[in-house]
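Hello forum,

I keep getting stuck at the same step: I have a sequence, I want structure tokens, and every attempt I make locally crashes halfway through. Rather than fight my setup again tonight, could one of you with a working pipeline run this one for me? It's a single chain of 1082 residues.
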Amino acid sequence: QPCPDERACALRRLSAMGQSDDVAAAAGTPSGVSPELLDELDAFALRVELQHGEPVRPRSGLASTFQCCTSRTKPMHSGADRPQPIWDTADMSWLDFQRRRWNTLWLMKTVYNRLKSCEAAASSDALPEPEQQKMWNDCHRLNAREMREHAEQVKGFFIKAGQVMSAMVGVLPDPYTDEFLSLTDHLPVSSIEEVCRIIRRDLKRAPREIFSEFDEQPIASASIAQVHRACLRSTGEIVAVKVQHEGVDRIFREDCSTLAIVAKQVVYWTPDLDFRSVIEDMSEALPFELDFRHERRALERAGEVLRKAGNPCVVPRVHPSLFGPHIFVMDFVAATPIISLADPRYCEKHGLDKHRILRSLLDAFGIMAFKDGLFHSDPHAGNIRLVLDPSSPGGARPVIFDWGLHKQFTDDERLGVAKVFHSLANLDLVGLFDALAHLGFDFKPEMMTDDFRREFLEKARSAMKDTVSRETARANVKHELREYKERASRMAQDGTAQGTYSPIYFLEELPKCVVSFMRMLQILRGLCCAADAQGMPVLQILSLQAREALQEGSRCESLAGRLPLFTGRSAAQRRRPTVDSPRHWTSRSIDSAPDTVSLEARVKLRLEELLQAQRIVGAQVAVLQGEALGCDVAVGALSTTDARPVDGRTRFPLLGATPGVAALALLRTLRRISAQPGNPFGVQTAEDALRTPVSAFWPAFGGGGSDVTLADVLSHGAGLQAAFPTNFKASRLDDIAGVAKHLEGVPLRRTEQRRYAYLLQAFAMAKLGDCMALQDDLLHWLGAELGPLGLDAAAPTGHGCDASICRDLPELSRVSMMEVQAGRDRRREQRGEPCAQAKPEVACGLLEAMMRDPLAFDPLQGNGHGGLFRGGMPLGASAYGLASALASGALREDLEALGATAPAGADTTALGWLLAGGATAFTAGGLQIVEAKSRWGRRYQGYGVVSGLGPVVVHFPDLAKGGLTVAVTVNDVFHGRSAVAEVMSEVLGHYGCAPCWTKMPIRTHLDAIRLAGSKEVEPFVSAMGGLQALKKSLTAANSASTDDGLRPRSRATCCWQAARLRSGPSHARAPAIGGVWHRITG
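Reply #2:
Ran it on my machine without issues. Output:
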């Protein structure tokens, strides 16, 4: 029962309003009492009922049993030495708000002056290192305490800012994160009277009518609301009631205005620290956060998405009818702080694996952001807790509370951000900037240099590196601070912004969708560091969800047909013969009688096995006997991020096969020129045409007057591999005129040694097409010469219905501190170089050029929007188009007339073997010599175009009647060569043969050993994610090349294998590229 003093106080308040206990009771309802007092009466009645278990009289009799509501004494916070602060800002005046603003600005100035004073004292070198460290610690401790006290005093938005800063473990000094951690649980609370008033106003019912139990003290309090434990009177269910603090909406609006002033002043003092966009983003989200109806919908939607995805994270369910703008009722979840994972004894006691638990949490955010578009954007330690569950991964389930601050992506935004993460994980420089442009990143044109693009990629990856300890994170921040000071010093000297990475210098506009997402990601990383979970592969986890989201988006016709990520040039529709067409061949060679199992069935089986083993993404196989179609199979998807299926019309990137295909066009042009009497190039007969000097067509080639012939250039005997510009960068992949001019300034002479001219051969072919056929575009030249033969060349690939160049290595997404430190050292070394006069451009070899800029040689550069050429890599064609052109009788006549199939030499180096796909013997016409060996020992020689990156088209004149032509196209540049070798073995095995060019000769083995100790290889290995990452990927690729690495075989598969065994060793499996690289990398 209430004490007499409380009753007397209540009676005095009623008397002051002109009422008495008897009058109120007689009236039935205390109509003369103010609504505020009625809420206080309800609150007291609820307390009496819950504390003493006795029902109270109706409101008419409450005047004799209510407690003085002016008492606002709060209990001490458990484990703290200071009382729980009170949320008492509902009746603030204009003067109070102005006082809050001036106090905030004064504190900002005080903190800034204190830091500048310490910086000046530290730079004077008057203090020894230990005293400097003590001075900084004292300064940070004082600043942190004053900022925390200010947040608790003024409340509002400053509490939320402190919560965000509490998660920046390793980024901010420890005194800040430790001090602000109390803001995640020791927050101001509203009185029970204010809570009851809000419940009555929103739900139109008294609290005691809804709840049979209601804890007076909140179990949690945040900057906007607090949560009480209660029991529903109707069902007896234990629930959590979230109630908004009264008057918080006006306070937050004022605080956003104040923080905007603070952000503007900070930018004035320190231009690199620009968080104005963060304040703008949070200000725009504020109206949605203050209306709990939006939060209720976010809770329901996120919970449904995670449950469907099978993620163990818990999102409380919302009661369907008990909600309003300032209150809602949800499931009560008893959880512990997630920071408990930092305690080894706690984890050992409960058998917890913190890495698996946090991986589930990161997976949940990837699912929400990339697959659904709605995600929690404030996951600090107060909003993420744990529920012990031995059946869940890691022994516990993360619980995500407080969905007031959430972000909704559009389909464009969520898939664009997903593409960014997938590109970062795979070192896809072109894909990264394409996705950023799709998101609305407007870079300043003067900043878009090759060095900037590469360093931007490195910086972005370092921001998502694997989590480290607090000490390592703190050392990382010190490195960043040192770089910042160096940049600031250079800017002060030359007045430029060179070297800075603040968005205000290189961006015209920063998309707001990215701001909220990066803020969320930073908080999650800080949470992992606070839990002492080292080595969490944040980028790898999110990139896997990003890839799945992109695949799902590509399967949706409405998205695939509308979003720029998936739309583009549509592939030309053309009628194609099928296997059941009258053109299907029936004649067979006597020496190469096919097995009883159909060729198409064998090829399909092999492709499906490779697809299941994740060694191909998409592939096509076309086989022609004579000019009749014998097999046309397509499997897989357009890319790792575009799940639309490959069909027979899909064009695949030619990559390194482009120069060989261009050589066919050159031979056709040359044959036509030789047939013209008195032609301006001095070509007399077709037999002598290939011996014509290149200078007859391109006078300035090789410094002018070079003795290099067309046959030398086509057969890689002109020394082009050693003629790279020293400043060869990604931007030069489209600069045909610039590279051609460079080749005119490099003295080139014929050489008996053959060295595969990677990339530069395509530039030489493009220039010769301009000189010989007056075709200034390589694609037009291919279409004019080879189009009539069936080649369906097109550019660029990677958009619309064309396949993209792929490289999906999970280990590349692991970003270690070693990679981050290597990037810093390289930039520091570059900055240390004297700014002397530019050195004259000279030539260098392929490995040296790769050492200077490895990413310029990345095949994924062929996916870019920058131009249509890109070193010839993106030019695409289908397997059927390639096979049709090479099988053409007209082309064979040209080759015979020119003597283009005569052997001209071989490249014996390991690098040439890798780049040429093992076919390192060249003909005078630039084709590659290939051999197949039958089970009876007979050898069949053929020719074609083979690329170490995948695409292959070969023709064997004597293997079948009318000749046998096989074309295989793939888009996975890492596993492509080994996968193509297996498919080629499958096709030739149908005729009782096996390919010989896929086996590395002993001489090449020796060169690989020499190359293993070469420093030139190191940059390439680093660009692929480091030696250890490359070894892991190659081990997986090598193991996958055996039957044990493929999926279990079905009964039908075993039957086909038995057919192979009965017919002899027809299926000679080619060694995988992994075995070669194991020799090179030791």
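The mean pLDDT is 77. If your local run keeps crashing, start a new thread with the error log.
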